[in-house]
Specification:
20% helix, 3 helices
Amino acid sequence: MRSDYVIKGSVLSEKSYGLLENKVYTLKVDLKATKLDIKAAVKDVFGVDVVNVNTSILRGRIVRKARSKKGGANEVKLPNIKKAFIRLKDGQELPAPVMTAPTETVTE
C-alpha cells in the first residue's frame, strides 16, 4: 500500500494527549492498512524509527439525522475509523501539537 494513502491524520483527544507523555502518538490510518504498512509509512513520511504499532478499529455508530413528515427520522451509520498507536525510539518525536499548562506570571 502506498505510504501517502496510509496516514489520514492525527487524533486530537484527551487520551492521545495523555499518551504523548509516554512518547506514544495516535494517528488515523486507512482501514486496510496493516501494522507493517503503518510502520513503513511513518518512516517514509516523518523519517523516524518506529518501535511498536498497536491498532484499533472504532466502529461507526448509528445516528438519527433528518426528519421527514412521512417517514420520521432517518438513521445513518457513520464510517468506521482505524487508529494506530505508535511508539518511537528514544530521542525521536513527531511534529505533534503539544498542550502546555498556562504559566502563571507574578507581578511585584
